[in-house]
Please model this.
Amino acid sequence: MARTRRKRPNGQTIPAPEKITISLTVNGAPRELAVAPWVTLLDALRERLGLTGTKKGCDHGQCGACTVLVDGRRINSCMTFAVMQDGAKVTTVEGLARDGTLHPLQQAFIDHDAFQCGSCTSGQLCSAAGLIAEGRASTVEEIRELMSGNLCRCGAYPNIVAAIQQAMERQRS
Amino acid sequence: MTYIGTSISRVDGPAKVTGAAKYAGDTAASDLAYGAVVTSTIAKGRIATIDTGAALRIAGVLDVLTHENRPRMARRTAAYKDFVAPEQGSPFRPLYDDKILFSGQPIALVLAEEWEIARFAATLVRVEYEAEPFATDLQVERERAAAIEQPLKSRGDADKAYGDAAVRHEAEYFIPIEHHNPIELYVSTVLWDGDGKLTVHDKTQGVQNVRDYLCGVFSIKPDKLRVMSPFMGGGFGSGLRPQYEAPLAVLGAQALERSVRLVLTRQQMFALCYRPATIERLALGAQSGGTLESVSHEAIAVTSQYEDFFRNDSGWSGLLYKSANAKYGHRLAHVDLPTPSDMRAPGAATGVYGLECAMDELAVALKLDPIELRLRCYSDRDQHDDVPYTSKKLRECYRQGAAAFGWDRRNPEQRSMRDGSELVGWGMASGVWDAWQVDTAARIVLTANGHAEVASACSDIGTGTHTIMAQVAADLLGLPLEAVTVRLGDSTLPKAPVEGGSWLAASVSHAIAKTADEIRKELWQLAKAMPNSPLAASHLEDIALVDGRIIDKKGNGGGVPITDAMRHGRRDRLECETTNSFAEDKKHARNTHSAIFAEVKVDEELGVIRVTRVVNAVAAGRILNTKTARSQIMGAVVGGIGMALHEETLIDHTLGRMMNSNIAEYHVPVNADIHDIEVIFVDEPDEIINPLGIKGLGEIGIVGVAAAIANAIYHATGKRVRDLPITLDKLLP
Model:
């Protein structure tokens, strides 16, 4: 089949939405970017800021893979537009380690083998960090319940819970 | 062995917990364009007209590809047949022509400067169809289902033996369409390298399978196209065959002559592939003492109109238990859906579900403990070929699993055990899978600083391949784990099969072992040539590589450091690549086995079911890494819980469309659904199957799990639900 590029139809081009400049503090560093209002925080992080540690698993707030911390609270970054977070402090999985030392949760996830494919892991870690900061979970049942927004199809749940418990204990001691 | 058999943490763990691991959708490119797919809204017919004018008018849209204007694709069916394609039929070709074969079929690819623009413009593509009547319902089409030739021969006269049996059980069990739903979306990032060269970062379980497929479809020379997938965000079988994001992204890159990223949506992924809806018909005839006289098993499953996909569902029934008479059947109902695919333990997860529920029903009819029935029917030989197993420790699985679970405290009466307002049920089942092994190549590069790189074009889909490759290489080269780096998921590396069927661990481990043995020989020769070498009089068979040294196991002294031998021989590096082939052995059967014990608690008034405890005792040869292996079985149990209680793709048969194509309405287990899971690895030394005694673990963990849970629910409630998933509405009076 001969390749024929489609001609753009006659008539006016419809412009894409105008871009708006916003400022974010991402993992401690100030970042400025111009994004259209329809760009989610997730796509801003992944496709505009090159922070691909945050994963897209559904784009509908159903799986939790895109969980990040915004001003310390865990949110699904696919469910908010970047322009709505102008001025916010965003922490992604890339920002959990400090000075080359893994965050206690990251180390606990390795120790307990709390992941297999790794696709949900960034979201699990940020969600767990948010969970610990909320201070609402102290029992295994509460951890399970409050981590249920983060799906893991490899089925690492018991290891995830054990890892979070380890990190909680380390924090207490 | 220092590392094999230990519980070391994943070597790729730090990359995965810091976000540094690069998956197919994470690759950056300065000239990246984005794709968005338009899919069909009818199940069958043809595209009458497709109007892309409105989409093309959006600023930032670069092109819209359809069957009318796409770049050239092969005409021959053979070009589309990947390594895993069914023998019968002609694979689906995206954007090939105007025919619609299933709802959700890709029919246009919008290419734009930004993903959001592509996505929006995709909503503006207008399609007129000429629709045709279609069929999607297995229950309606089952009467027209055609028998396929079964690879397994029946034996004896099962019908007569069934008629003569003292105790009989016959029933149908049903497994609906299930979707793999890995968390990572299907994605391909095609880098336009210039000179017609492409690097395809694809979500796949087999980079060389995708390379060969793309080279065939687009008539590209293999050295001009490289497929990369060093990290894969979950497959469960869905990535064994090339999926359409790869050819579409290549079409886009060719049309634009620039790099393209195409991410499918979760909804679109439901039209890639799935576990086929299957009816399992079981008939078991036994003597009153509990020995089987007759086993009949027929599976009726869906496939597409264009390919005959099927796996061995029924053969397990005549393999697992001793019976002189056995009969198998498999029929396919052709429906207007995409072709089904392998999904974790294909055939066994479904077939053994039917068998193990039927065995439970038979045990009830015989008034026998379900373990006792299985022990009375135990078979030490593979009855298909009448050969012994290389190893089979299923008895130990029953024993250790039952002990860990506390099975002896079970009251055999239904509805007899309680915990407050909840009915408690205990059920069990057996599991079985093949222990396949496939010819695989590996390359080792040992450098004079004592570092080794081990490479093979295999995959790590979360199974831990990086880690076991490092363990095996470190042990056989006598190096510390930190001195070994692993490369995989790159089509330019030594030949490896797709990762599936539980065959990769044994296959790649022996490829490394054989290559490491060549390195050992070379090092020995270098060491012998050294002046006053302590190994001068040594024999190769006594030489081992231990702690960075070449040692003579029969001699005295510490041998020669590897680095010294290489320096003296003026060798900066030793490089070796070999292909390991496994000797054919028709005198033994190769299988893994398991015994699963499940506890459920069922709210008597509301019917809410919780799986509160599972013990899975697995006999699968040598366990390479007890930490990652435990995780793999645990994860498979979670998959089995999903199968038992949650997972079901619902089709509106008046539209021929999957309706719950998202992971809020297609239910998978969440953290709160999962309680205690205990994994036991029964010691199963196997000196026959292969030198390292490895069998593989990917599938065995899910086989039988849904049956154990279904049997537990029956024990708790007295209600036998044979159609999965067992949702609470099926328990209510």
User: Anything to note?
Assistant: The mean pLDDT of chain B is 97. The two ends of chain B are 58 Å apart (CA to CA). Chain B touches chain A through 77 residues (CB under 8 Å).
